[in-house]
Each structure stands twice: as C-alpha cells, then as structure tokens.
Design a protein that fits this description.
The structure is a single chain. The C terminus is likely disordered. Helix content is about 40%, strand content about 20%. The longest helix is centred in the first third of the chain and has 19 residues. It has a domain of about 70 residues: Arc Repressor Mutant, subunit A. The strands form 2 sheets. It has a 3-stranded antiparallel beta sheet. A two-stranded antiparallel ribbon has the order 4-5. The radius of gyration is 19 Å and the shape is flat. The protein has 4 helices and 5 strands; from the N terminus they run αβααββαββ.
C-alpha cells in the first residue's frame, strides 16, 4: 500500500522549521549529552512549565549558564549538567523505582 501526500511549499517549510527546532539542541555538537537547552526545551525535557524553570533558576536550585550580550542576557542549560542534577535529586523507593524529589518544584513557603 502506497500513500501519497501533497503539501504546499509553505507547509513543507513549516514542518521543516518545527523539526529543526526540536532537533536543534542535538545538532549543535552531535552528542546528546553536550546539548545546550533553552528554557522552553528544558521545560519540555523535564515535562514542567517554563514558570517552574524560572523559579528554579531564580532560586539557584538548578545548574544554568547565564549568557550576556551588553545589557541583554539569556539563560541556557547543559543537558549533561541537568542529567547529573536529576540523578542527585532522584532516590529509589522500596521497590527500586526512581522517584524525583518534587519538593524542588514547589514554591518555598516563608513562615
């Protein structure tokens, strides 16, 4: 069975751009562990919101790189640093399943 799909040039470009954006962190070095992630990519990787990423960064609870260009700055994350950070925050339960310490994702309460 053969399926043929006809796409406009605009649709092809949109699909190409979306695919490139998803693969961009891996294309930079060729090694997944060397990937540099922005906040959105990290949020997708960790399956949490960008707001939670911002909170972790502002509380210095997650490893990050701050890039400065004059007055502007951007925050980036090395995937290998994030993976190490996750490993430190993960503990096995009685069954041997890994459980992430979700306390990091909760806003600290001030008493």
């Amino acid at each position: 069975m053969e399926l043929k799909v006809s796409l406009s040039q605009e649709d092809k470009e949109a699909i190409s751009q979306a695919l490139f954006e998803k693969l961009k962190p891996y294309l930079l070095t060729g090694k997944e562990e060397d990937a540099i992630l922005d906040k959105q990519a990290l949020a997708e990787y960790l399956k949490i919101s960008v707001a939670q990423i911002n909170r972790l960064v502002s509380n210095n609870e997650i490893p990050f790189i701050k890039l400065r260009d004059g007055k502007a700055s951007a925050v980036r994350f090395r995937k290998r640093d994030i993976d190490r950070w996750l490993a430190r925050k993960t503990t096995p339960d009685k069954s041997g399943n890994l459980i992430f310490n979700h306390e990091l994702m909760r806003k600290k309460q001030v008493k």
